[in-house]
Amino acid sequence: MSKISQKYLITIVGPTAIGKTALSIKLAQHFNSEIVSADSRQFFKEMEIGTAVPSKEELNAAKHHFIQHKSIKEPFNVGDFERDAISKIEELHHTNPVVVMVGGSGLYVKAVTEGLDYFPEVDSKIRTSLNLQFKTEGISPLQEQLKTLDPTAYNSIAIDNPKRVIRALEICIGTKKPYSSFLTNSEKIRPFKSIKIGLNADRSMIYDRINQRVDIMIENGLLEEAKALVPHKDLNALNTVGYKELFAHFEGDTTLDFAISEIKKNTRRFAKRQLTWFRKDDTISWFDFETDIDEIIHHINSKMQ
């Protein structure tokens, strides 16, 4: 590799189970670089099997950052990640002009590559009240409330995601202004150039890979991992696919077979949402998940000219 003067962040995105980790390791090895994880589910040390944390072999193949570095009991949001990840990337750029970032959490990727919009602080009691309403009445009343208070946000955010709906509502209620009025759509200046690579496959292939991954998680002990986390099931970090379905099973609400089928179904839905998010970004260059690594490296090198 010839000497590179500009600093670059190569970001690998795509739906869950598509092979992002394997590609990121090959690229980190090629560029003699390190990996920043932007997978918000893999930050927590208590959640290993259900979040498909890279294996010990994968972690040894290239140095990773932001993998299981927090406890589920520690608050760590996207703003915290933006700050810490930018700091780590700048540190890594002191010794290597190329850093690799990988993850399927679209908002966390956006936070690092483009920056987040500023939202004022609001009374935490508002969120507590909205969370209680969601728990007792479901998401529909919250969606209707958002539709009334901020139709723009209602039509633009992931409306089936309770966290996103509650976040938008708390801003509307706490500031008496629409959530969408705080969205500036202006990118922050970053001290590096972003090169984004997306991995994709036919939907049937993605779904097959997801179903296989869930079966492997069950074989590897996901039930035992989830059972140990039952005392903490109300924590925000555990309100996620792979755990909440098993919590319902442990409480006697469902059979184990049904819980596993729900994990597969909800993971497939999650993958669909990931693709919807990433397809809105026209700076991503898409490749089939089986594309030869040399072709992807050639593309990246052409972006570095």
Automatic annotation (TrEMBL):
Enzyme Commission no: 2.5.1.75
Keywords associated with the record: ATP-binding, Magnesium, Nucleotide-binding, Transferase, tRNA processing
Residues binding substrate: 16-21
Any GO MF annotation of the entry: tRNA dimethylallyltransferase activity
Site (Interaction with substrate tRNA): 105, 127
Pfam families, per the entry: IPPT
Binding site for ATP: 14-21
Cofactor names: Mg(2+)
InterPro entries: Dimethylallyltransferase (IPR039657), IPT (IPR018022), P-loop_NTPase (IPR027417)
Location of region: Interaction with substrate tRNA: 39-42
Reactions the enzyme catalyzes: adenosine(37) in tRNA + dimethylallyl diphosphate = N(6)-dimethylallyladenosine(37) in tRNA + diphosphate
Described purpose of this protein according to its UniProt entry: Catalyzes the transfer of a dimethylallyl group onto the adenine at position 37 in tRNAs that read codons beginning with uridine, leading to the formation of N6-(dimethylallyl)adenosine (i(6)A).
Family: Belongs to the IPP transferase family.
Record-linked PANTHER family: TRNA DIMETHYLALLYLTRANSFERASE
Subunit structure: Monomer.
Protein name per UniProt: tRNA dimethylallyltransferase
Species this chain originates from: Winogradskyella marina
Lineage: Bacteria, Pseudomonadati, Bacteroidota, Flavobacteriia, Flavobacteriales
